[in-house]
Amino acid sequence: MNSWLYIGIFVALSLFFPALLAVLGWFLGPRRPNPVKTDTYECGLETVGETWVQFKIQYYLFALVFLIFDVELVFLYPWAVAYHSLPLYAVAEGVIFIVLLAAALVYAWRKGALTWS
Amino acid sequence: MTAMQIVFILTAVVTLFAAFRVVTTPNMIHAALWLIVALFGVAVFYILLSASFLAVAQVIVYIGAIAILMMFVIMLTRREMRDRGPQTGPQWKWAAILSALLFGGLVWMVESMALPAAPVGDVPESSIADLGKALVSPNGFVIPFEVASVLLLAALIGAVYVAWTRRNS
Amino acid sequence: MISLDWYLIVAAALFVIGLFGVLSRKNAVAILMGVELMLNAVNINLLAFWRYRAPTEPVGMAFAIIVFAVAAAEVAVGLALFIAVYRRFNSVVADDINLMKW
Amino acid sequence: MGILSQPIGVIAEWLRNLFLGWGLSEGLTTVLLYLIGAGVLATLVQVWVIFLIWFERKIIGRFQDRLGPNRVGPYGLLQPFADLIKIITKEVIIPREADKAVYLLGPIIMDAGVLAIWAVIPLMPMVGMDLNVAALYTIAVGAFATLGILMSGWASNNKFALLSAFRTVAQMVSYEVPTVLALLIPVLLAGTMSLQGIVEAQHVWYIVFAPLAFLIYFIASVAEVGRTPFDLLEAESEIVAGFHIEYSGMVFAIFYVGDFLHAFTIGALGAVLFLGGWRGPGAETYPLLGLLYLWIKAFLVYFLVVWARGTLPRVRIDQMMDFSWKFLTPLALILLVVAAVLDHFVMGFGVWGRALSHFAANVVIAVLTLRYLDHQDKVRESKRKMVAQPGQYPVARPPVPVETSTEAAS
């Protein structure tokens, strides 16, 4: 519990320091906004319409494969911690788990979901 | 009031407020950001419950992956970046009444049960290793462990199949 | 000391807020967010009971971690469906998707 | 208990007695002590960044046959301070259509996500919080850096910023998978997720056990920070900027600081996980020596990052994604399986026997991987020859997709 107290304080401080920098910049710097300055910077062209671009599905697919991997890895970490006291068949179960994970990768690969186009 | 109780109440207030904003704010990206705050609050609850591993797993899985995926999809399924008009349907009053009734019922149920005021013991130092052992032990959770892997594999295959067509490439 | 019912009441509140979101929201992604809140409420309950009743056995943690896997699978497939629906209807607002409604 | 053998312990004890003498309660004293400890560490790390900026500019200058900063102060050492004063006096321009709260929170969260990693890094024996999930904690905190980038890209309300944020996040999550897999190998070998525990278990550095895992960790982390050769999203010699195009003044400086700090943090984490952390002769008796060793090792890894930046050309985005998913991730999975199976059989071989058998397995995998890559090259070569048939126009290579910044907008 004590280590979490320290980490909580540390995280609060790590939010505080950059916030302090931002506030410092805000107060010490000049502030003279005008319409041209606060315009969106899009290569000097006038911005037409709302910011909206139809993005590629590709981004979703990368994030999706990442999500699946992330969750499976969360399962693997306790297994790795317990590893030294596991019998061989338990190690094998972990290996089966990793092989299934690899199968997911192979499917996404074969399907072309991981190819940037 | 002990320090722990103050931390608990602060976390509860922040979490529930954030959760409330998730379901009421009209801007979808803001809803996703409030969801992150709520999920982070839940991670703090896990720490208070001495489940450190689950707390970091919560941050990795929910904030690092699920919330990012949701923000991606919000931005992908969008004709304009701004949301206009009310985001709740006309049935919201009925939903509110039903939710309030359910909350009342749940509180009544919790209060009428005889619940322990303090934990029966401490969490052992080796709890993560115990979890690891239980996950692969035949007397423990080896079937759910492998099934979870198959489930995630199936989810990946299904999701890639549904979302991905050659037309996109 | 914090007693068990505090956790249960917070979890209940989180659950009903999520339920309200699921019932009242129009955007499909927002409905999914409500479901996530409900699943998190369930996880708080699982871990609270584990901590207060059986902290020496890893049962509660194992349950919670499997809920993670289920939530992740649900989000992955759900969002993929929304993308497919969006491609067909150009919208993910639940009211607009009324092909099967009469 | 001498000041040399327990430097932090002695100071903490002295402060504790001081606070208790003022009549503060036990709990409040602990909080104050932690606050001071965390404050000192966080400040030192941030100030260190100022030196890093000077160092990197100087080194890159030398790589490119220039002098680097040399006007302000001896060897140009005061240059970063001059830059700091300049940037403080610059205006923070917030675009009109920006979502102000999210716009300002983005860089802060990104920087905090990097700085917070230092909470669990074991600086010397007996010092640093011994969190039992520290290895996962570093990944969890890293998620906030990703989040901060997505937030700033979206809140700027600029299509190019958003597009770049999408790409950056896609790159970061792609390279997080091999990082997490490579991190699993030290955890498996040490049997603990505590970083202090991992350092203590390294009687032989884990770079001997798993040189390939270190390589994967290093490459993937460099890509996660988005440095050369993986910096195509904010390629300073080609395009104006990436997701932070709408940021200026001090708010932009936060990104800049976060970037440098991240690179050094990679070095520190790499040193802890694979290079024995504070381990070195005499470190057990004089913990301050341990701090010195850790700093030197972290600096070495950081130097490798700078070296790569000074020498390697930039990769294309499709090559970059392929490299993570189709090379690093499968390789990391194979390494993990081999390490898990092998370690079970060599557990009783003694420290060096275990280390050397792991090393041998790594060498075998490396040789096989190189063979496989050679084979792939040959296949590609023969396909290329088939394209260039006699009687037709000779085509030197298959058409390469042209990469432009607006192409992704379909």
A few lines on this structure:
Chain C is an all-alpha fold. Chain C has three helices and no strands.
Structural summary, described in words:
The complex is a heterotetramer of chains A (117), B (169), C (102) and D (410). Chain A is mostly helical. Chain A has a single domain (2-110), classed as NADH:ubiquinone/plastoquinone oxidoreductase, chain 3 (Methane Monooxygenase Hydroxylase, Chain G, domain 1), CATH 1.20.58. Helix content of chain A is 65%, strand content 0%. Chain A has helices at 2-28, 57-82, 88-110. Chain B starts with a helix and ends in a 6-residue tail after the last helix. By secondary structure, chain C is an all-alpha fold. Chain C has a single domain (4-96), classed as Helix Hairpins, CATH 1.10.287.3510. Chain C has helices at 4-24, 28-53, 59-89. The longest helix of chain C has 31 residues, at 59-89. The model of chain C has no long low-confidence stretch (mean pLDDT 89). Chain D has one domain (90-380). With 410 residues, chain D is mainly α. Helix content of chain D is 68%, strand content 0%. Chains in contact: A-B, A-C, A-D, B-C, B-D. At the A-D interface, helix 1, helix 2 and helix 3 of A face helix 2, helix 4, helix 5, helix 6 and helix 10 of D.
Any chance you could write out the topology, listing elements then pairs?
The complex is a heterotetramer of chains A (about 120), B (about 170), C (about 100) and D (about 400).
Chain B lengths: L2 H22 L3 H21 L3 H25 L15 H21 L14 H10 L5 H22 L6
Helix pairs in contact in B: 1-2, 2-3
Chain C lengths: L3 H21 L3 H26 L5 H31 L13
Helix pairs in contact in C: 1-2, 2-3
Chain D lengths: L6 H15 L4 H38 L15 H10 L11 H16 L18 H22 L3 H32 L4 H7 L4 H4 L1 H15 L23 H26 L12 H25 L5 H30 L3 H38 L23
